[in-house]
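[User] I have long wanted to understand how a fold can be written as tokens. Those tokens are not coordinates but codes from a learned vocabulary of shapes. Could you go through the record with me and say what the backbone is doing? Thank you; the sequence and its tokens follow:
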Amino acid sequence: MTDIVVSDLQQVQDAVQDAVAAKSRLELRAAGTKRHLGRAVSYDSVLDVSAFNGIVDYQPEELVLTLRAGTPMDVVEAALAKARQMLAFEPPSMTRILGQAEPGIRGTIGGVIAANLSGPRRLTAGAARDYLLGFEAVSGRGEVFKSGGKVMKNVTGYDLSKLMCGSFGTLGVMDEITLKTLPAPETARSLLVGHDSLADAVSGIAAIFATSHEPGAAAILPKAIAAEEGVDLGRSFTAVIRLEGIEASVADRLGHLLTLSGGEPLDAGKSKALWHRIRDVQPLAEKPYDIWKVSCAPSDAPRVMAALDPGLDIRMIADWAGGLIWVAGNSPRIGPALRGVIAELGSGFAMLVRDVGVTRESIEPLQPLSGPILELHRRVKASFDPLGVLNYERMHNSV
């Protein structure tokens, strides 16, 4: 496999047009930290876009950031921190659970957008796709196209920004992207509440979110993992609820919730460290297990976990108040059980994120699509990339 190194959209256009003429297939890659997400597919060449690097325009007063897709997340976060701003969707770093391309590499903003990755704040602030204002790209036809702009209202026609998020590079090669930023909170504290079951934890979190005290994120840790993280309260599960804002407001809201829940507080430093680990799925990263990402309604989380044989050697944590469950284990029965309960529920997905063996050879890593939805995906793919030049079949058959 050869590498085609490009530094601008004209070079991308030339490379894609050459691939179209030769009927060859390209794998898109920058840092390479997310190349193991999705199906394992062979390509003729790697289109190396790591040179798409740098901030093009940042206007903190307008809450708008334009940068190239290959810009490392460390650079993005440093620029935002200097202006006391943030990406509200709290993008996670997947390098520990997926394997780093090079030591110290956290991945790029383009990879975050292509995989539509969002962290704990997604529960209340929205997903990555909600903050992509616009982009420029080259399609699998070798045509330059753009969508959106630098303000929320500058959108006409189809909302291609949301289409590109989560497309895993199958529709186009992005260069410049524009994101909405938000002011970073002055401080953050967490409330810890013990529960005797996962169902109790989910309902307890729902009750707290029904108050006027504006929690921003909520996770659930089983007793063993809570102990490893230093937040075990002696119950079967520990709910971790995060409050953000100015110091006086956070202290007041936390005080009210402590009285309401009978929980315990976690100071700002420990809270920040714990939420970084939850965001990056660190409690499950150390053991050599497959890792599954399950999305469901929070109220369905107990049913999802009940579908797994209690005798299986698994570890789990839940984020998004129970709506995002991470399951780690090596039994070949885990995937079919998760897919089965998702089918029964009629919504959600179960995605194989890390495969430490050969699991991907026996089960599709992404949630299989129903016939009509798969056909729609194929039609969209054909519109942007009729010959399947870009990351072909990375997501699904013929997509």
